[in-house]
User: Fold this.
Amino acid sequence: METIIQIQNVAKTFMTKDNQVEALKGISLDINKGDIYGIIGMSGAGKSTLVRCLNFLERPTKGTILIEKQDLSQLTEKQLRKVRTNIAMIFQHFNLLMQRNVLDNVCFPMEIAGISRHDARKRATELLEIVGLEEKAKSYPSQLSGGQKQRVAIARALANNPGILLCDEATSALDPATTKSILKLLQDINQQYGITIVIITHEMAVVREICSHVAILDNGGLAEHGTVEEIFFNPKSTAAKELIFMEEGKFTGEEINSNVE
Ligand code: ADP
Assistant:
């Protein structure tokens, strides 16, 4: 297995006006090419900070991030920009340009990369087909449902053929059925194009649905990591047990509600 992302002893401390926050406390993790890797933890565990370190939107205070064996701290700004075009990202609130229609949203990263308008439109149309939204090309984001907006964001993320897709709570604003359909789309993209996917989530159900591997963050530290099967069948850390227990509790709650109805 070829390692595509190596996180080596990464720490991040934020200095605030009157104290300091150790958001990450020495995390080490290898992510292989083609994995769908879940990073899960409670709110404040350090998930967003870790994912932002992967493309150096946030520079680690200590430790090393290697993307395809390249140490990001050793790159020039120009080299770093090139690596970043290989790492796409989608977000909880989609981050679409509200004054542009769907097609032009998908064209946007290609415009920045200097691709001609004709080629960008052709590729954007293909991408909208992949995400099942070709008939919405002329619609504006405000005219779309949450699931459709996330599909546009996914099409836009794929525009420059990234090798890695980072998903930061990408389904957290969606209802369960829409979440399932977006996760299915991500899985198809992973299988068809071999894109490595890193999913940040606070929901064990998301991990169980599509991830091959999972790392559990707890209070800035790595509580446990392994294949999803290993962690579900034999959780060792308290943090893993709590997350699994919370999900089971939710299921029981749903069952009770549906029995009452
Ligand atoms: P999560 O994504 O798991 O909810 P975060 O990575 O957002 O966690 O945050 C981890 C910790 O770091 C939290 O205590 C948060 O308040 C703190 N933190 C994150 N970003 C900053 C920042 N820019 N300045 C100060 N503290 C921060």
Notes: Residues 253-261 have pLDDT under 50 and may be disordered. Residues 125 and 174 are 25 Å apart (CA to CA). The chain is about 40% helix and 25% strand.
